[in-house]
Amino acid sequence: MEGKYYFKNSSLKEIAAVIKRLFDTNVVFNTPGTENVIITGVLVKKDGLMEFMDNLSKTTDVRYQLTDGVLHIL
Q1: Residue ranges of the Protein FecR C-terminal domain (predicted)?
Q2: Of 15, 16, 37, 50, which has the maximum CB count within 10 A?
Q3: C-alpha dist (Å) from residue 61 to 9, 37, 46, 73
Q4: pTM to 2 decimal places
Q5: What angle do CA 49, 55, 57 make, to 5 degrees?
Q6: Mean pLDDT for the chain?
């Protein structure tokens, strides 16, 4: 309702579904197993996808690249 999505022990695969819905962005996992990384946090729609991904990459080993409207999880 407020554009905040809270995650507790959620996999990146679950969060990818939310990213697709919120930002109309496809998510591709380039490294096997990355979709199973578990995270707890919050995704705030008004802050944007890049801020969420930047924070995610600072707090985990997850790296990403946005190319032609597709979010690649490396």
Answers
A1: 4-69
A2: 15
A3: 16, 9, 24, 11
A4: 0.90
A5: 100
A6: 94
